[in-house]
Each structure stands twice: as structure tokens, then as C-alpha cells.
């Protein structure tokens, strides 16, 4: 079994263990619902860190991660009622935000601003079209573009937002890894 196959298997099992559906909710959340989910992430995070997405092998195998950083900051699989998953469409081979997608991100401004000094992780995802290393870079660029937008439009400080590329490893529709729905951005409160 390859490193990538084992990683995907562990993540699939973790998703199944949480009871999360294959296709989670999207940008249809109200600002109040977004705030409630962020607050629930924070409360649950103080109780337990739950299931953690962890690769088989060394944490330093994650692109750009040191052992300590990878272990301390590994993204978590969250229960569906805590997820803040915003399906942002990007043009093929592009990390530029489309004008029709910006209102979805604007809906996050109020909830993020009202969370005080909390730090948010922005996790970019891609579909499985193209090579894995390319998708990893593209997902990071998309997360960074969303971060730049939130800093400019929401006046959030840079140090409250972390941009992370998840590549193609966690498809929202595992039955069709190349589906458009797999290109998305998710948000987690990390501290």
C-alpha cells in the first residue's frame, strides 16, 4: 500500500467514524449559523481534539512541515454540525477568485470578526484532475487567495488566518474525485 493510498484510507475511515455524509453542506449557511458552528468548534476543541487527519509515515512528509508543526497543526475531521464548508468555484487551472463567488466569502466577515482574537484555518481543496503535487500547490494558492480577500474585505489581521493546501486528498465526493464539488474551501477555528 502506498503512502497516498494509506493516507486516503485513514481519512475515509475517519470521515465514516464521524458520521459525516460524503457531500457536506455548503455556502447556504446564514451568518448566524456560521457563527454558531465556529463557536461549537471552539467549545468542542477545548474538550477534545477529536479525530485528526494524520498521514501514515513521518509528519515531515507533509509539504513544508516540520515534525513539531505537522503534529501540532494537523487538520481535524469535524462533525457535520461544526463544519463551515464554503463551495467556492474556481476556473480551471486558476486560483483567482471569481466575482460571483465573493458574496459567499463576505458572509464570513461578521462571524469571523465577532470571534475576538480566534485564529482560523482556511483549507483549500482541489479535485483529482492533474498531478498530486500540482494539486497540492494549487489548493494552497486558492487558500491564500481566500485569505487575501478576507484580509482586504473583512479587515481581519493576517495573523488570525492560516492558509493550508489540502490538495486532492479529501474529496467531498469520493465516488467522483474529479467532480467540481471537490474544489472547495473549509474553515476551522484553531485557537
Q: Which keywords apply here?
A:
single chain, about 190 residues, alpha+beta, 60s Ribosomal Protein L30, Chain: A, 4-stranded mixed sheet, 6 helices, about 10% strand, disordered N terminus
Structural write-up:
By secondary structure, this protein is α+β, with helices and mostly antiparallel strands. It has a single domain (3-189), classed as OmpA-like domain (60s Ribosomal Protein L30, Chain: A, 2-Layer Sandwich). It is 38% helix and 9% strand. It has a 4-stranded mixed sheet with strand order 1-4-2-3. It is globular.
**Percentage of residues in DSSP E strands:** 5-15%
CATH topology: 60s Ribosomal Protein L30, Chain: A
Count the DSSP helices.
6
End-to-end separation in angstroms reads: 35 Å
Amino acid at each position: 500500500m502506498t503512502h497516498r493510498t494509506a493516507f486516503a484510507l485513514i481519512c475515509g475511515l475517519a470521515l465514516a467514524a464521524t458520521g459525516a455524509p460524503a457531500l457536506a453542506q455548503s455556502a447556504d449557511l446564514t451568518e448566524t449559523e456560521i457563527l454558531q458552528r465556529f463557536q461549537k468548534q471552539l467549545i468542542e476543541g477545548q474538550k477534545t481534539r477529536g479525530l485528526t487527519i494524520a498521514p501514515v509515515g513521518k509528519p515531515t512528509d507533509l509539504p513544508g512541515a516540520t515534525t513539531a508543526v505537522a503534529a501540532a497543526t494537523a487538520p481535524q475531521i469535524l462533525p457535520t454540525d461544526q463544519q463551515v464548508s464554503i463551495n467556492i468555484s474556481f476556473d480551471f487551472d486558476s486560483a483567482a477568485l471569481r466575482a460571483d463567488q465573493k458574496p459567499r466569502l463576505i458572509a464570513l466577515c461578521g462571524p469571523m470578526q465577532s470571534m475576538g482574537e480566534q485564529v482560523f484555518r482556511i483549507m483549500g481543496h482541489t479535485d483529482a484532475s492533474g498531478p498530486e503535487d500540482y494539486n497540492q500547490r494549487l489548493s494552497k494558492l486558492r487558500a491564500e487567495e481566500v485569505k487575501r480577500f478576507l484580509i482586504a474585505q473583512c479587515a481581519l489581521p493576517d495573523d488570525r488566518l492560516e492558509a493550508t493546501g489540502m490538495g486532492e486528498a479529501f474529496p467531498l465526493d469520493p465516488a467522483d474525485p474529479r467532480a467540481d464539488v471537490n474544489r472547495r474551501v473549509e474553515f476551522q477555528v484553531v485557537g
